[in-house]
Specification:
The protein has 11 helices and 14 strands. The protein is an alpha/beta fold.
């Protein structure tokens, strides 16, 4: 299975949300990492077929998804960032409703609904109205909805928003299990979610993919530019005008340990650090303070 994105552009008036983007995706987990406003949601809505591009095309196995129409929708699962819920539905009725929309009926409807409610740990709450659910419970129900038709292409926009640490681990394990025979595109700005499950990381900024690769490939690119230095607390503001500053940890009442970016060793006592994905993110989205 191959999903190709060719010269894809989407504009809103004078603003270009996605700019002449090209990608080729096969089975695995693709983490789309970017700050808010980078174009992630617009791209995913176009891949899901709910938004038309101004130019370019998306092809599945060489055929445009618009021409595949229902054939494409039948293999697609989509969890948008702001997913709408019918609050007076029970969790079970909500999934039954989406089964009907996706053409899932009969005995399999009941079996699949029960299976997914158990998988997202909502089976004991299946008769309760959604309006009584916490944000994390609603998000888990949204994930179950996206999986109803056992999709070959799964698109998830900020899927772990509202999940607690335990739920995040369950979700990561689920994605790992599912990724062997399907394409999973997973947009987030939460770096820790990606480290464990992404086969490929796509960094998106201002509507373009500015970097892509496995985590080691991306961290190798910034090796030798991440440093740790111990400074007096009152000098932090000055440092922020000179360097992109990452993590800062209090060492004592007077000193803090900061992680910063510099192409050259910034201070005599600075120690080189092994870069991680947080550092990769900051290298693209961190800013030097002008204040």
């Amino acid at each position: 299975m191959k999903l190709e994105i060719i010269g894809l552009t989407k504009k809103y008036g004078e603003k270009t949300a996605v700019n002449n983007l090209n990608l080729s995706l096969t089975c695995g987990v693709y983490a789309l990492l970017g700050a808010n406003g980078s174009g992630k949601t617009t791209l995913m809505r176009m891949i899901a077929g709910v938004l038309r591009p101004n130019s370019g095309k998306i092809c599945l196995n060489g055929k445009e998804i618009g021409k595949l129409d229902a054939e494409y929708r039948n293999i697609l699962g989509y969890l948008p960032q702001n997913f709408g819920y019918y609050k007076d539905f029970s969790a079970e009725d909500f999934l039954y409703y989406f089964c009907a929309l996706k053409g899932i009926d009969g005995t399999y409807r009941k079996e699949r609904t029960e299976e997914l409610l158990k998988y997202v740990d909502l089976y004991s709450e299946r008769k309760k109205k959604i309006k009584t659910f916490s944000g994390g419970m609603r998000q888990r129900l949204g994930i179950a909805q996206a999986l109803l038709n056992n999709p070959s292409i799964l698109i998830l926009d900020e899927p772990t928003a509202g999940l607690d640490p335990k739920e995040r681990i369950r979700f990561r394990n689920l994605m790992t299990e599912m990724s062997k025979d399907r394409i999973i595109i997973y947009a987030t700005h939460i770096v820790s979610d990606i480290s464990f499950i992404a086969d490929q990381i796509l960094i998106m900024k201002k509507g373009e993919i500015v970097a892509e690769g496995a985590m080691k490939e991306l961290t190798d690119k910034i090796r030798g530019t991440v440093w740790n230095v111990k400074i007096k607390k009152e000098t932090l503001a000055t440092m922020q005008k000179q360097f992109i500053i990452g993590e800062a940890v209090a060492e004592s009442n007077d000193y803090i340990s900061v992680r910063l970016f510099s192409a050259e060793k910034p201070f005599e006592d600075a120690k080189s650090c092994e870069p991680d994905l947080n550092d990769v993110y900051l290298s693209y989205f961190g800013e030097v303070s002008n204040q």
